[in-house]
Design brief:
GO cellular component, one term: membrane
Subcellular location: Membrane
Low-confidence stretches: none
Mean pLDDT: 83
Number of domains: 2
Number of strands: 0
Radius of gyration: 19 Å
Order of helices and strands: HHHHHHH
Largest sheet: none
Helix content: over 70%
Protein name: Citrate transporter-like domain-containing protein
Structural class: mainly alpha
Strand content: under 5%
Pfam family, one: CitMHS
GO biological process, one term: transmembrane transport
Length: about 130
């Protein structure tokens, strides 16, 4: 029981999200129509893209790109700006979700190689998602 309480205290956002989700379940009653709202083709494409990105990561492509980006940028600030702008510009050419699925793993790899793992959450939250 203590373990559950610690988890609930640690993940406050999760608890609040569940409470709000349950509350909205009483306001708008669930129906079978909800399943028609889910576009399984899009979910399959996004899952496939995530599998491709994982394969690219395993092949070491992100390591090469991360090394190149680290050579071009001289500071953590310019590196972070380059990552954010790369995702921003690419999201103009491809959809936002594809840009994020592609560039968030790259940003994580760049920050790890730069020894700035503590900035991973900051930079990934700054990627454009509008």
């Amino acid at each position: 029981m203590d373990k559950i309480i610690r988890i609930l205290k640690k993940d406050t956002v999760l608890v609040v999200s569940w409470v709000i989700a349950l509350a909205t379940g009483f306001v708008i009653l669930p129906s079978a129509e909800y399943f028609s709202y889910i576009d399984f083709k899009v979910l399959a494409v996004l899952f496939s893209l995530m599998a491709v990105i994982a394969a690219i990561r395993e092949m070491g492509v992100f390591e090469v790109v991360a090394g190149t980006l680290l050579k071009w940028t001289g500071s953590v600030r310019s590196m972070s700006l380059a990552l954010v702008m790369l995702a921003f510009v690419s999201s103009m050419l491809i959809t936002n979700d594809i840009a994020l699925i592609t560039f968030v793993p790259l940003a994580i790899e760049v920050l790890r190689r730069a020894g700035k793992g503590n900035l991973i959450s900051v930079v990934t939250m700054l990627t454009p998602d509008w």
